[in-house]
Amino acid sequence: MAELQEVQITEEKPLLPGQTPEVAKEAELAAGILLDQGQTHSVETPYGSVTFTVYGTPKPKRPAILTYHDVGLNYKSCFQPLFQFGDMQEIIQNFVRVHVDAPGMEEGAPVFPLGYQYPSLDQLADMIPCILQYLNFSTIIGVGVGAGAYILSRYALTHPDTVEGLVLINIDPNAKGWMDWAAHKLTGLTSSIPEMILGHLFSQEELSGNSELIQKYRNIITHAPNLDNIELYWNSYNNRRDLNLERGGAVTLKCPVMLVVGDQAPHEDAVVECNSKLDPTQTSFLKMADSGGQPQLTQVMASSCMTRLSRSRTASLTSAASIDGNRSRSRTLSQSSESGTLPSGPPGHTMEVSC
């Protein structure tokens, strides 16, 4: 019998008919640029159209990271600085990202006609299954800020099996009480919509300091061509229902949760209260000193929180063969200190980080 010889075959990408290697290289480069810019899609839902932008390619057995922005912002102004930090490269390389724009908040969005009934926050949450069905994604890790954090929490309560973890920044799980409602109405008599939204996004100390960051976001909101749409989203946020979270009760977030808030930020008390209502074995609380009202805009947020999320997920995938699926899901955001992931300490601990 003739001796078998090892033959190495080099696979080459076939050229299209009439295509030169130079043209093929340019096409590949253009495809890479398009991938970096993201691919924007819109889908129809029972509550209107919703636009979202996808970055990266799906990875087998890995959830997508789905983000939802706060009032006065869109996905770019809310999350783009976070994902541009060098510490986020691990996330970018290992996860596909889906950035959702609330209806009418996407760049170039037309102004809704007078009398348009904007969806409630509950209805915005009910749009998410349409997005996942369109993309054929089965599970997500949600990252939300303010109104977006509420929307993702509402979605997680109604679709717990599709959420592997949540990072909730500046979440207020409570409906506005009568005193809050009255104060909001009185403020509306003396303040413009942009000023009220800025007061929601940033602390009074930050606004008084009028830093370059504040000037940038004041300009974005004040001169937004879709300001009427922003006001509708703002009204929906102020009319939100109570999530009715209860530690040990029937209504609670079943996935691992990381709560994030800046020290002395407008929503610090609300996030602390939310922490008291969640399962301490599934919840980590990250309070960031000197990070302001929008901690996701700081590099400390990227290095302290999101890269741990990536390593945590990688560790849980590695151990999936030896443990059942539910335990694997529960470890997405709650790895032990051995893995070098979430901060070590007792369950439900608070970690303070200085910027």
Task: Please outline the helices and strands.
Blueprint: H1 21-37, E1 39-45, E2 48-55, E3 64-68, H2 75-84, H3 89-94, E4 97-101, H4 121-125, H5 128-135, E5 140-145, H6 147-158, E6 163-169, H7 178-190, H8 193-201, H9 204-209, H10 212-222, H11 227-238, E7 257-262, H12 268-276, E8 283-289, H13 299-318, H14 325-330, E9 350-354
Helix pairs in contact: 8-10
Main location: other
InterPro entries: AB_hydrolase_fold, NDRG
Subcellular location: Cell projection, Growth cone; Cytoplasm
Produce a short descriptive summary.
The chain has helices at residues 21-37, 75-84, 89-94, 121-125, 128-135, 147-158, 178-190, 193-201, 204-209, 212-222, 227-238, 268-276, 299-318, 325-330; strands at 39-45, 48-55, 64-68, 97-101, 140-145, 163-169, 257-262, 283-289, 350-354. It has a single domain (35-311), classed as Rossmann fold (3-Layer(aba) Sandwich). It has 355 residues and is an alpha/beta fold.
CATH superfamily: Alpha/Beta hydrolase fold, catalytic domain
What CATH architecture do you see? 3-Layer(aba) Sandwich
Strand line-up in the sheet with most strands: 1-2-4-3-5-6-7-8-9
End-to-end CA span? 71 Å
Number of domains: 1
Structural class, from helix and strand content? alpha/beta
Count of beta strands: 9
What general form does the structure show?
Answer: globular
Order of H and E elements:
HEEEHHEHHEHEHHHHHEHEHHE
Poorly predicted parts:
1-15, 25-35, 314-347
Mean pLDDT: 80
**Cα Rg:** 22 Å
Described by strand count, sense and barrel closure, the largest sheet is: 9 strands, mixed
Task: Please estimate the helix content.
Answer: 40-55%
Total count of helical runs of at least 4 residues: 14
CATH class value: Alpha Beta
Could you say what the CATH topology is called?
A: Rossmann fold
What share of the residues does DSSP label as strand, in percent?
15-25%
